[in-house]
Amino acid sequence: MRARALTWVALLWAGAAGAQPLPVLPDATDLEPAADVVHVALTVAPLAAPHDGFEYGVNGATPGPTIRAREGDTLVVELTNGLDTPTTLHWHGLHVPFAMDGVPWMVAPVAPGETFIYQFALQQSGTYWYHPHFDTDRQVDGGLYGAVIVAPAEPEPPAPAPEVVETVLIFDLPAEHAPDGHSGAHGRGQRFPTWWVNGAPTPVEWAPAAGTTQRLRVVNASSTGYLALPALPGVRAIAGDQGLAAAPDAVGPWVLGPGDRADFEWSVGPDAAVWAAEPYSLNGGPRWGDPWPLLSVTPVGSAAAPAPVAWPFSGAAPSADPGGPTWVYALTGSDRTGVWFINGERFPDVTIAEVPQGAERVLEVRNISPTHHPFHLHGHAFEVLSVDGVPPPHRRIEDTIDVGIRQTLRLRWLADNPGDWMAHCHILPHAEDGMMTVLRVLPAP
Ligand code: C2O
Ligand code: CU
Fold first, then answer.
1. pLDDT exceeds 90 at position 1
2. Quick check: CB of 259 below 6 Å from ligand 1?
3. pLDDT tens digit string along 219-259?
């Protein structure tokens, strides 16, 4: 059995001679001449040539164009709905006003043929992404998503610094959504991990210049797939969901659940390498199987790898756990029933917890189900205080975090953005099947 799997991978790998080069995603065109406004037009519509489970595109392609802006800019996005169903755009990880959150919960979705203008100030830097939040499982799996890259207000790293070449990598597993509506958690890709990146099947060929520093901005846009990336010489994780990390991490493996992002610095030397995803399943973490080659890296030239960049890492320690007040979120359910709960409730029949703007809460997320769940909170970020009682080595700010089987996470949350904010599992079939709730932040009087 094992031999057969190896042969299969070897055959596939032999076929990689014909592998595509890594596609470079286009940037969205900024239609506004003013320096501090970025105005882009996005049309979501069926793809002219649907393929491999990808049905929809943004401006004609999946992934959609990358939105690039700077912290402090105003972002204006004109969304035109060319689908025959309603849609929205959600700005995953960004602190947007509630009316701009793209959630059809008291704010109507965008009807077919209509245009809606999203407009908000960018308050954070980092790697974010946009995707619909209407019929989310189906629309995201069909290919509606793109990256939002927000550069920090102050250049990062501070000058003088080596040139850093940036590349956005959006990973996805196609055809995860089951048309019967109850896909459970297995997602075809769990057994056949055909990861795609930037709209091409992996492995892809990547040929960066030897002697350069590359920053890979990685988004996991999959609805069910966990991307487990092992350490490689010259590679460090430098940023998470919410911009630059407090400290770099060269140890790995880095596990990105659905909705998660991370940035990697790659100091490219002359040696070829293969970055292969380790087998990993939402049904229990590391699992049996062979690594799945994602990037086949053949540097151009013979220059030595540059020294790591002196990014302005804060080195900050994690905050002390304040103890309380604590809100507990218990995650339950199972693949067998295909029904998922938060505190015994299924969205939309949920109890809405309320907190005044400016107050702090500890969100204690307990996973007492047999699968992992990436917990995501809208409109805010949170600090990871502890995982099973153990604080992280450095301050860690996230908006999406994996909750392993039987794990308990304590998250420090400053409720500073008024609105009705969804908190949910980013395994989209789980969310669809009930694993969502709402946290209400009441505006300061
Ligand atoms: Cu990325 Cu509620 O979503
Ligand atoms: Cu889940």
1. no
2. yes
3. 999 999 999 999 999 999 999 999 999 999 999 999 999 99
Collapsed DSSP state (helix, strand, coil) of residue 226? coil
Q: Is 424 in the pocket of ligand 1 (CB under 6 A)?
A: yes
Structural domains of the chain, ranges and CATH numbers in brackets: 37-151 (2.60.40.420), 161-297 (2.60.40.420), 327-442 (2.60.40.420)
**What's the one-letter identity of residue 391?**
P
Q: Distance between CA 294 and CA 205 in Å, rounded?
A: 9
For 104-124, what is each residue's pLDDT tens digit?
887 899 999 999 999 999 999
Share of the chain above pLDDT 70, in %: 92
Hey, whose CA ends up nearest to atom 1 of ligand 1?
Answer: 92
The H or E element spanning position 5 is helix 2-14
d(CA 175, CA 258): 14
pLDDT score recorded for residue 178: 66
**What is the distance between the alpha carbons of residues 62 and 146, in angstroms, rounded to a whole number?**
8
Q: What angle do CA 292, 147, 114 make, to 5 degrees?
A: 125
Q: Map tokens 């959150």 to a residue.
A: 101
In whole angstroms, give the CA distance from residue 393 to residue 382: 16
Nearest residue CA, atom 3 of ligand 1? 92
